[in-house]
Amino acid sequence: MAFEVLDEHEQGEQVQKWLRENAMSILIGVGLGLVLLFGFQQWRSHRAQHQMDAAVQYDVLATDVGKKEYDAAKQIAAKLKSDYADTPYAVLAAMHEADIATERGDAETARSALEWAWQHAGIDALKAIAGLNLARVQLAQTHAQEALNLIDQLPKGGFDADSSELRGDALAALGRKDEARAAYTDALTHLDAGAPNRAFVEMKLNDLPVAAKAAEDTNSAEKKGS
């Protein structure tokens, strides 16, 4: 008999029977739901506290860097990288660590710190900054092909001028002048007329034709002499 045609007494009996048969399942489901809800709230609370703790640590690090208390800053950076690696503050700390190493002339430590920052950055903007700085260190160490490979992996957007300029630097170092010229030209399209580094990029671009013309003049002289 369909449920809707039963009288009130019979409907009540059916409901009570269903509840008796499924009471344990209902209790388990309600209990599981409460556990999951409580667990989620606890997780959110823990994550918020975790982020806050990392922010406090990073604030102290930034203060130490401002005071040039580099040894203390390095200790905090190490703690952030070990205990708060899943936060952006650890990535920022690693980049500060690289700056300290660069100021001390320690290119290998700077490179190591930037590689860590590059690998752990979860935000595109931070990953781009870490990658650009790492590529600069690689170029300074005459690892132009490594720098070029890294630049190709950078997140797109936001740092187009810097990435194109660095691409030009890497290509020029590899002797690929025409490609370097195209990269510098692209960098200029992303720079305003009053951008501080525009003149520097233009200088790099203008140096390339000079180098090409010098090679052409040398070849011409050799042909005339032969």
Question: Layout of helices and strands, plus pairs?
Answer:
Elements: H1 8-66, H2 70-83, H3 88-103, H4 107-120, H5 124-140, H6 144-151, H7 160-173, H8 177-189, H9 198-225
Helix pairs in contact: 1-2, 1-3, 2-3, 3-4, 4-5, 5-6, 5-7, 6-7, 7-8, 8-9
Can you walk me through this structure?
By secondary structure, the chain is mainly alpha-helical. The protein contains 9 helices and no strands. Among the domains are: 51-144, Tetratricopeptide repeat domain (Serine Threonine Protein Phosphatase 5, Tetratricopeptide repeat, Alpha Horseshoe); 159-220, no CATH class. 81% of the residues lie in helices and 0% in strands. The longest helix has 59 residues, at 8-66.
